[in-house]
Design goal:
The protein contains 22 helices and eight strands. The chain is mainly α. The longest helix has 17 residues. The two termini are 36 Å apart. Bound molecules: calcium ion (CA). The site of calcium ion has 7 residues, from loops. Calcium ion binds next to loops.
């Protein structure tokens, strides 16, 4: 996911796209979990009364208009609650009753609430997928090799010139088609795997579970708005277990704020209209800060003397990076667009792997899914589809680190006085910074990238240290 502080960015800077973001677990991503469940083809059985078709048939009466405009309607709120039999899950029923009472009090029409939420039951598959914690963190190179596959590149190339809407989408939003193809391929394999969960039920399940209640309830309200608009029926409102819908996997809230009817048929149909889905994705990137005419990244070759501690630092122009020892990879010098665009330097697989200057558009891609690996996947797929040369430096072959390995590294960094954060195994910005500081103190390449070798070295350095750092150890650089 995920993705700029847009509606998809409900979980803050750590994991911008909520559970939709759970696609990638890598040492770069500050997000947890994965969204493999998005790929599930399992058809969700709907345990609810089926009122399909009624939504579109109902006239837009005053309470409806008030509700759609977000205004309370006291008349409706005073009518009380009546809905279908409880689900036999006490916690879920308690949440559902509370949610419906709150919605009614806020002016949402009772007939809409009872029709769409009455008789709803939690989806056990969503609960189990949401609770899954990946044991191994996948090295970014493995992830890229798998996601930027020859099959996917060929499928993307087949869509470069065959779709008639590309020139109009590019002209309006300034996002090149290959970037949108990269997102399309990464999100759903070009519409092949869009998810078949009843999004309202999946979001209700997550809301009742509680960990992301506010986020999930916002998605339910947005889903109700979509149904009430008459454009998309409840039966069509399907997506991943985490609520991502359609060809380009929009959350309901993002659909409401950002989806576009680009083919002009009067419906924002991101499921069946490729033009609507891809224009909507372009609109999301623009809202996320996409800059027309600017590149997303450029691979660089680092001089042996390069100071790896400059990675993940401030942005500067490529000419300044050249002076620091980072030159453009391949035969071509900086392009005109690159030369005038500030960039920061990242080492996604550490100092032995490829290095990149990433421009502002890299962060715009992360509006979708706030993970460096995801944005690299989109960008590298886009470059391959557009026929640009591949990477000069290969991804290193790496072993995956287990959760306990990562927690041990954090614990050792803490014991050595460099880290005071949670021992959660998430190798985020804070852990990488601590690692860099320790590497500097040891005269090692300060790439902030955790490897099995580094864990051994940390263990050796931490040998015999007390489990709680003493004041003198905390003062260690
Ligand atoms: Ca349309």
């Amino acid at each position: 996911m995920g993705r700029s502080a847009l509606s998809q960015s409900r979980r803050g800077p750590q994991c911008a796209q909520g559970p939709q973001n759970d696609k990638v677990v890598c040492q770069l991503a500050d997000c947890r979990g994965y969204k493999a469940a998005r790929l599930s083809h399992i058809r969700t059985i709907m345990h609810r009364r089926d009122f399909i078709g009624l939504a579109t048939a109902l006239p837009l009466t005053l309470p409806w208009r008030r509700a759609l405009a977000g205004q309370p309607d006291q008349g409706t709120a005073q009518t009380g609650l009546r809905w279908q039999a409880p689900s036999a899950n006490g916690a879920f029923d308690a949440w559902l009753g509370g949610f419906m009472a709150r919605a009614l009090a806020a002016g949402w029409p009772q007939d809409l609430l009872t029709r769409e939420l009455g008789g709803l039951t939690p989806d056990p598959k969503v609960i189990s997928l949401d609770g899954r914690q990946p044991e191994l963190s996948r090295p970014v190179g493995d992830y890229i090799r798998k996601t930027v596959s020859q099959d996917k590149i060929a499928a993307g190339q087949a869509r470069m010139y065959s779709l008639t809407f590309w020139p109009a989408v590019e002209a309006r939003f300034g996002v090149p088609r290959e970037i949108l193809i990269g997102i399309w391929g990464m999100e759903t394999g070009f519409g092949a795997v869009m998810g078949n969960y009843d999004v309202v039920r999946a979001m209700a399940t997550l809301a009742a579970e509680g960990r992301r209640q506010a986020w999930a309830e916002a998605q339910i309200f947005s889903a109700l708005r979509i149904i009430a608009s008459g454009q998309i029926s409840r039966d069509q409102l399907r997506g991943s277990w985490a609520g991502a819908m359609g060809q380009t996997q929009f959350l309901p809230e993002t659909y409401v704020t950002t989806a576009i009817d680009f083919d002009g048929d009067g419906r924002k149909d991101i499921w069946r209209s490729e033009a609507d889905a891809l224009a909507s994705a372009a609109n999301l990137l623009v809202k996320g800060g996409w800059r027309r005419g600017e590149p997303w990244a450029r691979e660089v070759i680092l001089a042996p003397s390069f100071d790896y501690g400059l990675s993940e630092g401030p942005m500067q122009l490529p000419a300044a990076w050249s002076r620091a020892g980072a030159s453009p990879a391949g035969a071509l010098d900086w392009s005109l667009q690159e030369a005038r665009t500030p960039a920061s330097l990242i080492l996604p697989a550490g100092w032995t792997g490829p290095a990149f200057l990433v421009f502002a558009n890299h962060m715009a891609i992360r509006t979708y899914n706030n993970s460096t690996a995801y944005a690299l996947g989109v960008g590298l797929l886009a470059d391959a589809v557009a026929g640009r040369p591949g990477l000069v430096t290969p991804w290193p072959m790496e072993l995956a680190l287990s959760l306990s390995d990562r927690q041990k590294a954090q614990s050792l960094l803490g014991r050595l006085g460099f880290y005071a954060g949670d021992l959660d195994g998430v190798i985020g910005t804070r852990t990488r910074k601590a690692l860099r500081q320790w590497q500097v103190s040891m005269g090692r390449p300060a790439d902030g990238y955790l490897t099995p070798d580094l864990i051994f070295a940390l263990e050796a350095a931490g040998w015999g240290m007390p489990s709680q750092p003493s004041p003198s150890l905390q003062a260690w650089p």
